[in-house]
Each structure stands twice: as structure tokens, then as C-alpha cells.
Amino acid sequence: MITAKNLSKNFGDTKAVDAVDLEIKKGELFGLLGPNGSGKTTMIKMLTGQIKPTEGEVSVHGVDVLADPLRVKELTGIIPEQETPPSFLTAEEYLYFVAKIRKLEGFEDKCEWWFSYLDFAGQKDVLCKDLSRGTRQKLMLAQAFLHEPELVIIDEPLINLDPLMQRKVKDYLRDYVSKGGTVFISTHILEIAREICSSMGIIYKGKLVFSGNMDDPAIGDRPLEDFFLELVN
Amino acid sequence: MFELFRSMMKEEWRMHSAFFGNRGFALFPLVIAAVSMLLSLSMIIFWRIISQTDVLLGIHYLLLFMGSMVGGFGLLGREVMNRRFGQASLLAYSSRTLPISERVIFANFIVKDVIYYFFLYVLPFTVGFVAGAIIIDMHYSFFLLLMTLFLSFCIGLSFVFLLSTIYANLGKKALFLLVFITVLFLVFFQGLEFEVFYRLPSFVLYTEPSLNILITCITLVIVPSIISLIFLKVDYPQSQKHYKNQFRKISDQLNFYAYSHFMTKDYLDFSRSEGGAGKIVFSFLVPVLLVWLFLPQLLKAVSGLDTLVVFTVVVAMMASSMYNWLVEFDMFSSYAFLPLNVADVLRSKLNSYSLLNVVPFLVVVIATIYAGRLNDIVHMVILFIAVSMYVVSVTVYLTGLNTTFSLYSAGTFASYVLAIGPVVLGMIFLAQLNFYLVLVSVLLIPVSLFVLKKSFVKWDRLEA
Ligand SMILES: Nc1ncnc2c1ncn2[C@@H]1O[C@H](COP(=O)(O)OP(=O)(O)OP(=O)(O)O)[C@@H](O)[C@H]1O
Ligand SMILES: [Mg+2]
After folding, report:
1. Which ligand is nearest to the Cα of residue A38, counting in written order?
2. What is the dihedral of CA B282, B333, B396, B69, to 10 degrees?
3. Which domains does chain A have, with CATH numbers?
């Protein structure tokens, strides 16, 4: 589903992502882990054609991201790190807007379903700019799944959500994958990975220092924190 | 207090320079100086038709206008900044998190604007102007001119601050009041004579310096500012409002446009944001009325010009500023994760722009009829469409989705002036030779389409 070879991005002298090779198969729930500033967001932006890599190749759904970023964005649901829905539309209008951009028909029921599943139907007629952060994140989740893509890429899916909603989102993601979808998430909370991911990569200072399944013998039964510290030192 | 002031200055500088690089921004004053120098040098050609006093008067009004633009930007700009950088990021908003009163912050904000733009506009403008004059052996008193131009700038600025305060406090009512006053003004001053313009206090201070008039000028600056500060109203997010879903309805009405969903969003952004439809009245119709009123008087100094042609050209240029309103709500990053090109967003903005242009279009039609020149209506319409298209295509090419900020960059601003100035003056000149030559403007339409095509390619490449 996702293949990256020697993927790198420099911002001036900073090597935000440094020669990463990555392979993610259909049906995986992949977690990209790493501390603040390690390159997760930069990685996601390159995978989704939002920025051009300094070096390397990347393909998603078998489409060369550099050659046809629009196609990749069509086929993928994406939630960026800083969710910025246009401010003067209401939550519901925003979903209609996205649906129009994606040329969908009969999306109204799906919108309703998301409002009730994530429990924000009371906010659907409020302007996006007046929504709380958590509610915006819910809206972005709904937006990303609206066209039922085979692949969804989410930068920090659980950020700003309360424990109850985190539970619901985790359940949804697991369910989505069990029905044949593929999910790529980034997070700096290690334990989320153990809870829901089927495979993971650990990125540190732009380098991918580990990648493998959650039952990889290298990890064993240790807390991920210990494993992580060992890798980093 | 001083610390706050210093930080605001730094913030302003960094914000501007971040948008177009340090060098581009630092060169801006040089471009201003160059332009004003050309202006005063051009006197050597025009002295037969325009007197030196008229030029001085003109530049005092120009600075008055610049001041009100800066004030207007501070007022509309706050909303823009807010959208772009988020609530907490600007120091002007820090009263929400720091123990400083809003008034102190705002007072700092005004003083900062004044000093900042003194160095950015007023000083370089004066230097360029006086230097140009020396070359052609005309002599102005530099410090007096610097002071009176600066006062002009401040008067413009403080009046717009006052207007914005009235508007913030009274909202729609103020708008109607304003329209009413303007209409009254129009009726009352129908027979306005050119001499009235010579009474601009800062200009009078230059021609006949006296303590009285100096005090008048300072009062005109201080009093509106103080009133603005006393009645200062900062809009905290009020109670959460609920809106009916209008998306489907509006986009269905617009569906003969390819980008009807974007236009719906533009419409909703526009009508629900601060000022709303008032923006059209405030920043378009009122200025147009003023131009309509003043133009015949101003053109008296230059004989033989067709006032209606000049008016149409000016309206078309002002119309292009509507493109700024349309893009000020958007950054490409809010679309970057959707299957869209920058070109798609630009095209959608041009769709909305063409719809908004109905307003200036009607203005031109009405003006033509009012002037009793129904016979010339086709020429005027073509001239309007061609110039409006051309100016907006240049704007799109040079600034993409970042219009407001990019025009402060020296290179961009200079290219903008060079691309538009000669063409517009050329049109007016042709019309003076022979009225039917305005039809040459038709050629601008294919040129604009070509420039737009180039722009789409350019911005797709740059923003990706
Ligand atoms: N546009 C940019 N310009 C310059 N440097 C950048 C830019 N974007 C990211 N960086 C730098 O690249 C590095 C990686 O940043 P990135 O945002 O990818 O980290 P992250 O893993 O997502 O962090 P976080 O967990 O805080 O979201 C950081 O050092 C950051 O400062
Ligand atoms: Mg990040």
C-alpha cells in the first residue's frame, strides 16, 4: 500500500527525515512513533504529496506520489497535524464542502452517522472557527473517512480527544482495518501503538530506527518505553 | 510598557519579512523612494498642465490615503492575522493571557503602526520626492514637507481607526448612517469647488505654516485616536451562534459555475465574517462615490481628459481589490490534504471574483447613463471588463493566494506597478487621442487569459 525508498527531507541544514525505507501492506494498522520533532509530520506530508522530498521515492496505492499527488489524495483520507477547516462554514457545511470536492453523492447519512458516533450532533451548526479543538478533530476524522478510502493517514489521531472518544476512535480504526482498510497513524504516545497497531516504525531524529510487527521478538514483553530508550541510546 | 512596544515592532518586522524574505522587504522603502522620485522628476514633462502646488496637494492626499489604507489594514488585517496565525499568536491579543489592559496594548499598537510606517513609507517617499525635485532644480523644504506629509498620513490613519471603532460599536446601524452621510455629502457638495481640497490642514501647514494650523493638524490626529481608545471594543468570541445549513441551497443556485462549492464557501465566509456585506459598502462603494465626486474636480487641472474613461479605469482597478478580500480567508494549507491544486483554488477565486464584479460593472453602467452617454456604453463596458481582468490577472500572477502581504515585497510591488501603470495610462492616453481607441483595450482580454494560464502553472509549481 505504501512504499518509500531512501526518503529524505532537509529544511536548510536540518535533516527532518533522513533516508527512510518503509513498506506498509494492505490491511495493516501502522503506527509511526517518535518524540517531538523527530520527523513524523514531515514523513506524512511526503507520503501524501503535500511536500516534495529532497531525495528518494514514494508510492501509495501503487501511484508515484511525486508524479501524481492529486490521485494519491483522491484515494486516501488524510488528517493533517494542524487541522484548519475553513472557519466560517459550520461543521456540517464543511463536510458538504469536502464531499463536493471529492464529488460524492448521498453523503448526508454518513455525515449524520459521524455526528452521532462521535457525539457532536449538537455542534454541527456551529462555525468551524468556534468549535473546540476536540470537536475540530472529530470533524477532521469524519472528513477523512467520508469517501470510504482504502487508506487513511492520520497525524496524531487521538490528540485533544477525551478518553471516551479516544476509545471510540480506536475501536473504529481497528474495525476499519478488520474490514480490509489500511491505516497509518503517527503518535508520540508509545502505548497507543501497543494497544491498537499491528505494526510500527520508530523514528528518531529523522532516522527510522526500527520497523516491524508488534510481535517482533526484538521487542519482547518489555514496556515499549524501555525498548524505545534502548534503541535511542 | 516599552518592552511590549519593542516586541511589537520586532513582531511586525518578522511577520513582514517572513512573508517575502528579509531582502525583499528591506528594499521596499527604496522602491517607494524611487517611485516618488520618478513622480517629482516627471514634473519636468507635466509642468505645463499641472502646477507645482497641485502636485504638492496631490502627494498630501496620497499620504492621507496611505494612512487610511494602513489603518484599514490594521482593522481588517486583524481578522486576517487571526485566521492565519491563530488567536494567541499575536502580541495584540496578549491581553487575553497577560496581565496588561487592552487599551495599553492598543495604544502601543497604534504608535507602533505610526512609527513603523513612518520609516517604511513616509520618510522614503519624502526623500525620493525632494531628491527628484533637486535634480530638476526645484526646491522644497525637506523637514517641513516631511512633517506635513507625516501629519497627512496620521490624519488618515486616525480617522480610519475612528471609523473602525464606530463600526465596531454600532455595527450595521453605523453602516447605514455612513451611507446616509455620504449621500447627503454628495447632494450637498454637488457644486464642490476644487478650492475645497486646498483646505486639507496638513497641506495648508506646508503652504502657510502657522502655529494655529499646526495645532489643528495635531488635534485632528490626537482626538480621533483618543476617542477610538476610549470606546475601544475588542471582539471576544461571543456566545456560540448556530447557523442553518445553507450549503446545498446556495451551491445549487450557483451551479452553472464549475466551482460553485467554493463560491458558496466564499459567500458564506464573506457574509458571516466581521463586517460582512458591509465590506462592499465600506471599502468599495464609498470610495467609488468619493472618486465620482472628486474626479471631475481633480481632472480640471489636466485639460482634455475624458472623465468617464478615467472613472471607468479607476473603478476597474478598485474592483481588482475585491480579489484581495476573496483570498484573505484562505491559505493553501487548509486544502493541501484534499485532492486539489493551487490552480483549482485560484480558479475558484476567479469564479467568485467574476460574480462580485457585477457590482462595479453596474457602477460603470449607471455612471455612463448618469453622464448622459448611453451611446458610449459598449465602449465603457469593454474598457471596464478588460482593465479589471488585466489587473486581476497581474495580481494573481504576482501574488497568488497571498495578495495582501506580497505587495509589500519590493520586487513584487515594483513589477505590479510596472505591469499595470503603463497599460492603464496608455488606455487613458489613447482615449484622449480618439475616444474610439478605447476599444483597443479588448486586446487586454487575451493577454489576461494568457497571464492567468501562466499563473496557474507558476503557483502549482511554487506551493507544492
Ligand atoms: N517547514 C519547516 N521549515 C523548517 N523546519 C521544519 C519545517 N517543518 C518541520 N521542520 C523541522 O523538521 C523537524 C521534524 O519536524 P516534524 O514536524 O516532522 O516533527 P514531528 O515528529 O511531527 O514532531 P511533533 O511530535 O512535535 O509533531 C523538526 O526539527 C522541525 O523543526
Ligand atoms: Mg508532528
Report:
1. 1
2. 30
3. 2-84+150-232 (3.40.50.300)
